[in-house]
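Email to the structure team, subject: Enoyl-CoA hydratase domain-containing protein 3, mitochondrial model.

Hi all, the expression group asked for a predicted structure before they design truncation constructs. Nothing fancy, just the tokens so they can compare against earlier work. One-line instruction: predict Enoyl-CoA hydratase domain-containing protein 3, mitochondrial, return tokens.
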Amino acid sequence: MSESPYILRSDNEGVVTLTLNRPQNRNALSFGMLEALRDTLAQIAEDENARVAILAGAGPGFCAGHDLKEMRATGFDDAFVERLFKLCSEVMQAIVHLPKPVIARVHGIATAAGAQLVASADLAFAAKDARFATPGVNIGLFCLTPAVALSRNLANKHMMQMLLSGELIDAETALRFGLVNEVVAGDTLTEVTAAFARKVASRSPLTLAVGKRAFSQLTELPLSEAYAHASKLMADNLKAHDAREGIEAFLDKRDPVWRGR
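Reply from the structure team: attached below.
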């Protein structure tokens, strides 16, 4: 196994790109890969210069899901498998709870836990050649943990179509299902994703964090509770410097100066 890092990180104008770096096995989520991703996300959460994160994959595909060869090498040890799935769940929740927007940049395949990564991200841009699947049913292992993330993106019938068939769907179908935001030519994927990330990164980091956290909370509440909670959050948000600065800048027809507070 190569000693190169599991995750490659590059920073540019507030946009942090994290590239899964095991192209020889389609960036399968081994225990080491998951640990590295968890630790890198924790670093980004505390990095004031990081505004937006892009999650990508090196080589011919985005992510082929869990590393089945690693599982077999342990003899499918119960303790290892339990720790592996627990760690994977922690990583997916770290993406959801990261106080910065996360954009998946998908090419090639995104299958099983790879599709789970896409569904856990806030946004996803896909190349026309991208393919998605939850193929666990084909090998006797139903994709239950990916289903958690998919259920927060897809209608139930679309989700069950993927889970029960195990078949690959193309990028346009993923767009129709709601798994990705946009499908673009492969040779433009990197720039299209980066351009959108830079646009988001130009916003107040405080506002982005407030909005992402609130969105997750509001979707879980009944309608009346959601409005009550949102009203309080907006009133609190208005007390922030960046909100006042943004309103003043809009009215004065100038660019705002964000302070992240």
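Residues 44 and 50 are 6 Å apart (CA to CA). The mean pLDDT is 94. Ping us if the truncation boundaries need rechecking.
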